[in-house]
Specification:
The complex is a heterodimer of chains A (178) and B (352).
Chain A (H helix, E strand, L loop, with lengths): L1 E9 L4 H14 L3 E6 L3 H5 L1 E9 L13 E4 L2 H7 L8 E5 L13 E5 L1 H7 L6 H12 L5 H11 L8 H15 L1
Parallel strand pairs in A: 1-4, 4-5, 5-6
Antiparallel strand pairs in A: 1-3, 2-3
Chain B lengths: L3 E5 H11 L4 E4 L6 H10 L6 E4 L3 H13 L4 E5 L1 H6 L1 H9 L4 E7 L15 H5 L10 E3 L4 H18 L2 E7 H5 L1 E5 L34 H21 L3 E4 L6 E4 L2 H16 L4 E6 L1 E3 L3 H5 L6 E6 L6 H8 L4 E6 L8 H14 L1
Parallel strand pairs in B: 2-3, 2-4, 4-5, 5-7, 6-7, 10-11, 10-13, 13-14
Antiparallel strand pairs in B: 1-8, 6-12, 9-11
The chains are: A alpha/beta (178), B alpha/beta (352).
């Protein structure tokens, strides 16, 4: 496994949290992982992104400039990062927010109406977990046990009541790909 | 506490300092270092320690001087512009032979510069952290685990040699999360400090902590004694890690974040049949010149930094004109890619 992942979207969509779940899951699976957030003015200006590497070899640069997988949860993120995805890579788009399609023909594209799927199921604000579930369904970057444990470890102790909802959202995402 | 956990570099370093017996932290917020101070502010009150947000960086470093003089393991942290403000205090710490740990999570400079990762404070840390004839111990972590492991070493060597130590990190290492194992800290024992100016109930001669020596012969003798100590440190405390250097034609020299990128570039070069290797200085002062000199088979050295070329001076001083030393760097908050470094390796390989 050697996955360089870039997650991008609006601040508040849970971009950094989603990245943390992936890194935790990879670590619990026995792989090398890194997580690097964008920091600085863009955090206040509305967009957030984060680089995650999962690899069986030690990780060199934690900054992902040519992602194998791009998760775009808004249009500015898709426009900004679409050109940087490696040929043959994967772009996952929240199609209930991003209306324009992916222009590139040399990448795999997965459209998930994550925001709508989340709100239809009473899980408003958990589109990120729906996307995560879908991503896991299509890219098995770790064992399912490690994946579920990674989610548990990432939800802080004082928010454990949200764990079930997070798991439900992930399962909705997984089902959307089956 | 030996479980592998995922932690940000800044927070991991702060927690490791606490485990190393640090109970006095004085800081002032600045990106990309702020999580370090924030972690201290959460933890210190719970363990009977002191977290104090000073009115300025200058005030914070002077509080470190006071706490260290009184015998406490004290620490401050900042990012590049903030470290410049602390330089007077760093000089006073060195002139008073006081141990303390100062963390610089480097960002781009000069001036306010930018907030993205940089390694442009190498000269400042190793050459002129303040006025006067002195050195500081300088440690350069390159993983979150090393942000943890080097803190205890910095405190211990600072105590052993009675001098301040800098941990020269950068925004990349401070902000990233990586798996980390915290040391079992319960058995940390802070060494006795018989020189400290703490209360003693009149049972001994009083101690004096001072950096003012008006009499030139005395001042010269004290400075020379300090430099004999520096010679001993140069002999005993050079630290580095080597990767595939035994048969390497091209030896890369890189520290911190750029060492991670250089290691990836070495792997890429090896896949193409180019014999590349990496020396990663862990102490920047004392600089590991013995390791560099020992690479007799190397045909050229390539120094990779996130600056316009600063550590390359120390590589050239070590090589002393005997071999080619080439520099490659990005600056201003730009992080080089392994592919860029590989291109430089190939350029050199074409010439030897």
């Amino acid at each position: 496994m050697n996955m360089n992942l870039l997650l991008a979207g609006f601040g508040g969509q849970g971009i950094l949290f989603t990245g943390k779940v992936i890194a935790y899951a990879g670590m619990l699976d026995g792989q090398e992982v890194s997580w690097l957030p964008s920091y600085g003015p863009e955090m206040r200006g509305g967009t957030a992104n984060c680089s995650v590497c999962v690899s069986d070899a030690p990780i060199g640069s934690p900054l992902v400039t040519a992602p194998d997988v791009l998760v775009a949860m808004n249009l500015p993120s898709l426009e900004k990062f679409e050109p940087s995805v490696v040929p043959g890579g994967t772009i996952i788009v929240d199609s209930s927010i991003v209306s324009a399609g992916v222009k590139r023909k040399d990448v795999n594209v997965i459209y998930v109406p994550a925001t709508r799927l989340a709100s239809d199921n009473g899980l408003k604000g958990m589109a990120n977990m729906v996307i995560l579930g879908r991503m896991y369904n299509d890219i098995k970057f770790c064992s399912e046990e490690a994946f579920r444990e990674g989610i548990k470890k990432s939800v802080p102790a004082r928010k454990q009541e949200l764990l079930d909802n997070n798991m439900t959202a992930v399962d909705i995402g997984i089902k959307s790909g089956e | 506490m030996t479980e592998k956990i995922l932690m940000k570099g800044n927070e991991a370093l702060a927690e490791a300092a606490i485990l190393a017996g640090c109970r006095h932290f004085f800081g002032y917020p600045i990106t990309p270092q702020t999580e370090l101070a924030a972690h201290m502010s959460k933890r210190m009150p719970k363990i009977g320690g002191v977290y104090l947000q000073a009115e300025s960086e200058v005030a914070a470093i002077n509080m470190v001087i006071g706490a260290s003089a009184a015998g406490a393991r004290a620490m401050t942290s900042s990012s590049s512009p903030g470290i410049s403000l602390k330089s007077e205090g760093l000089s006073y710490l060195a002139g008073s032979d006081l141990p303390a740990v100062i963390v610089n999570v480097q960002r781009a400079g000069p001036g306010l510069g930018g907030i993205q990762p940089s390694q442009a404070d190498y000269w400042q840390a190793t050459r002129a952290p303040g006025h006067g004839d002195f050195r500081l111990l300088v440690f350069a972590p390159s993983t979150v685990q090393e942000m943890v492991d080097l803190v205890g070493i910095a405190f211990d060597l600072g105590d052993k040699y009675r001098m301040p130590a800098i941990i020269l990190s950068d925004g990349l290492l401070g902000q990233m999360m990586e798996p980390v194992v915290m040391p079992a800290g319960s058995n940390t024992k802070v060494p006795e400090r018989p020189w400290a100016t703490c209360g003693h109930g009149g049972k001994r001669e009083h101690n004096i902590i001072n950096s003012l020596y008006i009499d030139p012969p005395n001042m010269e003798a004290i400075t020379k004694a300090r430099f004999r100590k520096y010679e001993e440190i140069k002999e005993k405390e050079q630290r580095r890690e080597e990767y595939l250097t035994d048969d390497a034609d091209v030896v890369l020299v890189a520290y911190g974040a750029s060492a991670r990128i250089s290691r990836s570039a070495v792997d890429m070069a090896r896949k193409e049949g180019i014999k590349a290797g990496l020396i990663r200085p862990i102490t920047l002062w004392p600089f590991p010149d013995k390791a560099i000199l020992s690479k007799k088979a190397a045909k050229a050295f390539l120094c990779v930094e996130m600056s316009m070329g600063q550590m390359v001076d120390d590589v050239r001083l070590a090589i002393n004109g005997k071999k080619d030393v080439i520099f490659f760097g990005r600056t201003g908050g730009m992080v080089p890619t392994p592919a860029e470094v590989l291109k430089e390796i190939k350029k050199i390989k074409g010439g030897i």
